[in-house]
Amino acid sequence: MKRKPTFFEAISTIIVMVIVVTTGFIIFDIPIQVLLLISSAYAALIAFRVGLRWDDLEEGITHRLTTAMPAIFIILAVGIIVGSWMYSGTVPALIYYGLKFLNPNYFLVSAFIISAICSVATGTAWGSASTAGIALISIAGQLDMNLGMAAGAIIAGAVFGDKMSPLSDTTNLAALVTKVNIFSHIRAMMWTTIPASIIGMIVWFFAGLNSKSSANSKQIKALLNELSTAYNINIWVWVPLIVIIICLLCKVSTVPSMLASSLSALIVGTLNNHFNIVDGFKATFDGFKPEMTGMSHFSENAKTLMEQGGMMSMTEIIVTIFCGYAFAGIVEKSGCLDVMLQTVAKGVKSVGTLILITVVCCLMMVFAAGVASIVIIMVGVLMKDMFEDMNLDRSNLSRTLEDSSTMVLPLIPWGTSGIYYAQQLGVSVDQFFIWTVPCYLCAVLAIIYGFTGIGIRKKSSSENVNNS
Same domain for 19 and 145? Predict the structure, then answer.
């Protein structure tokens, strides 16, 4: 490299990325992956201006992608475990009992809890919203409830479960980018997510006190009947869940734990549900299909619930990681990140300021891009060293990344999540925005914690030794 980029050259890579992604995605509906590659091309031009060659850029991209491989392994394992848990009946059983014991007198709180259970089980907020969420919003309509309230509680529960699940792609991505153990990351997120959710449940409790109707939904009864007919829901369906818990308690690595659970799920599905074992292996690759149960007819709700998982379902997030890391690798290799870091660092005088700047950067980028993965990658890479320099544990950064990106995604009308939830639940973003309480409270709590020191973890002495 002949010279360092100027601040204008460095910041222009981000500005161009924001313009390209915003214009291309919102106006022309171009896939985010393509837009990231276009942004990478501009970043490459800046790299050539400062004296780098294509071989140098390949080296930077390869180095950055190498750090992503552990998360990619986990993401593929997530697809396997969701498909196999659908085959064994573990996920359907979780949803079955969640819907069965719904308390109509506290519908909004119950809706949040049910959505959260579904998302923790599957690791996907979208899957939760498109299965249990659809059933719950139908019940809300029959109870003559405010659909904005109901959708807000459902979406908040779905995002909460996604954020707190070790099977979630964004949760694993945030842990990967910041090099934090996945369970340390989840424990750190409890500081913001649980208080925000408690406040949300208090709001939903009082908001729903006037809804005293009894839930007598034919749709939900039909769904429960289909699940109990398709699967043999008994004690054996919990074996895969028990296996992964035991493995993780014994400190077995995440991927082997998930694969062991998946193997047990295939055994349970074959022996307990009497499904074809060949279909079980197919489910781990291409997802579970309703016809694998041997039944010929299912409602649309049941089909949506059951068509889950498989490694192929994870290809989009993996491609996004590759495209995002290509951009990040070029920007980092050209020295643009260092220049931006040095400039941003001048305004950081305290932990509170650092957290605030991180939140603002995430919010700006997530509202521009409409997706969390690129925000987690870019801001995580940009801010990681600054958290290190202030003697902060990296879990503070990983938590803040999700507080101000993953959680706010449903609130962006032009983002993929905002569009998806509005279409699935039939409620517009402006109707449910105010009722998704934890989605916007987490970022607020993150800033408060930064200035008060609450929930802020310092690096351990061993980490200081390793980093010295």
Answer: no
Alpha helices in 233-335 (DSSP H): 239-249, 254-272, 277-286, 300-306, 315-333
User: How many domains does the chain fold into?
Assistant: 2
What pLDDT is attached to residue 355? 92
> How many Cβ atoms are within 10 Å of 158's Cβ, its own excluded?
32
Place of tokens 């313009």: 19
pLDDT tens figures, 113-122: 988 987 887 6
42 and 76 belong to one structural domain: no
Q: Give residue 388's identity as a one-letter amino acid code.
A: E
Neighbours of 104 (CB within 10 A): 16
Rg, the chain, Cα only: 23
Query: Do 18 and 91 fall into the same domain?
Result: no
Statement to judge: residues 43 and 168 lie in one domain: no
Please report the pLDDT score of residue 414 as a whole number: 67
SS3 of the chain: helix, strand, coil, percent, to 5: 80, 0, 20
User: Quick check: is 458 in a domain?
Assistant: no
Judged against a pLDDT cut of 80, whether residue 465 lies above it is answered with: no
365-to-181, 200, 263, 312 alpha-carbon distances in Å: 25, 26, 40, 28
Residue 438 is predicted with a pLDDT of 93
Q: How does pLDDT run across 424-452, given as a tens digit for each residue?
A: 788 888 899 999 999 999 999 999 999 99
Do 226 and 276 lie in one domain? The reply is yes
Chain position carrying tokens 């398709």: 230
* Number of alpha helices (DSSP H) and beta strands (DSSP E) in the chain: 25, 0
Are residue 77 and residue 29 in the same domain, yes or no? no
Residue 364: exposure state from Cβ atoms within 10 A (0-12, 13-18, ≥19): middle
- Domain match, 174 and 53 both: no
* pTM for this entry: 0.70
In whole angstroms, give the CA distance from residue 113 to residue 195. Answer: 15
Q: Does residue 354 fall inside a structural domain? A: yes
Domain boundary among 315, 331, 359: 315
Higher pLDDT, 145 or 150: 150
Q: What tokens were used for 307? A: 């068509």
**Domain assignment of residue 467, yes or no:** no
**Domain stops at, among 277, 297, 315:** 315
370 phi, psi to nearest 5 deg: 75, 5
- Residue 459 included in any domain: no
Q: Assess whether 119 and 160 both reside in one domain.
A: yes
Write the pLDDT tens digit of every residue in 343-387: 877 777 889 999 998 998 888 777 766 677 778 887 888 788 888
Q: In this structure, what token pair is assigned to residue 303?
A: 């089909």
The rounded distance, in Å, linking the Cα atoms of 234 and 245 is 19
Q: Which of 331, 282, 255 is nearest to 39 (CA)?
A: 331
Q: How far apart are CA 452 and CA 285, in angstroms?
A: 47
- Give me the domain span that covers residue 266: 70-315
